[in-house]
Amino acid sequence: MSRKKALKGAKGASKSPKASPCKDGVGKSGKCAVAASGGAVHPSAPSISTSGGFYDVAFKVMLVGDSGVGKTCLLVRFKDGAFLAGSFISTVGIDFRNKVLNIDTIKVKLQIWDTAGQERFRSVTHAYYRDAHALLLLYDVTNKGSFDNIRVVLLANWVTPYHPVSSHDGARSPSRGRLGLC
Ligand SMILES: Nc1nc2c(ncn2[C@@H]2O[C@H](COP(=O)(O)OP(=O)(O)OP(=O)(O)O)[C@@H](O)[C@H]2O)c(=O)[nH]1
């Protein structure tokens, strides 16, 4: 099985843009923690994700950037601490992984969406931006074109860079890919 196929199979890849990240935020009570408030949630009692981890707040984070800038590698590195060396297999469509962090006394669940960088998937991946709390914009430090294309993403989705039009105050951050992961 290919590297990326294995990754997707492991964590419930979503093929449809209508698939909601809150699916994984459904607690034992059946509530959808993320969708219920339209943003980060601060439930009075900790919620439980289907992956088994309790959390207090949840955020949806999107990894965006050209194909090959290292989005999948960054995600796997962050989630599992491993670097995916070897042959490059492009992401098809979109995929996500969850990670729960302990920050002070709060359990923060990050649902991190890995988008396909290839142009042909653009319309699919854009559909997921709307309710994201943060976009991580990645570029390859050895490829100026991949940096220039971040501007295109910003201008296409927001009126001016770092000024979101979306309903909640998401964060946008240019990040350097392919740097020091290996
Ligand atoms: N040297 C080096 N290579 C990297 C680094 N990050 C990723 N790569 C390589 O770059 C290639 C592409 O990495 P991916 O993470 O699959 O790229 P991607 O942005 O997910 O690409 P798409 O799925 O097509 O959008 C792979 O061959 C990686 O091994 C890095 O920090 N340093």
From TrEMBL:
Pfam families cross-referenced by the UniProt entry: Ras
GO-annotated molecular function: G protein activity; GTP binding
Keyword annotations: GTP-binding, Lipoprotein, Nucleotide-binding, Prenylation
Domain of life, per lineage: Eukaryota
Membrane topology: Lipid-anchor
Any one GO cellular component localisation term in the record: membrane
Comp. bias (Low complexity): 9-23
Catalytic activity: GTP + H2O = GDP + phosphate + H(+)
Compartments in which it is found: Membrane
Main location class: membrane
PANTHER family: LD44762P
Recorded family membership: Belongs to the small GTPase superfamily. Rab family.
Name of this protein: small monomeric GTPase
Species annotation: Gadus morhua
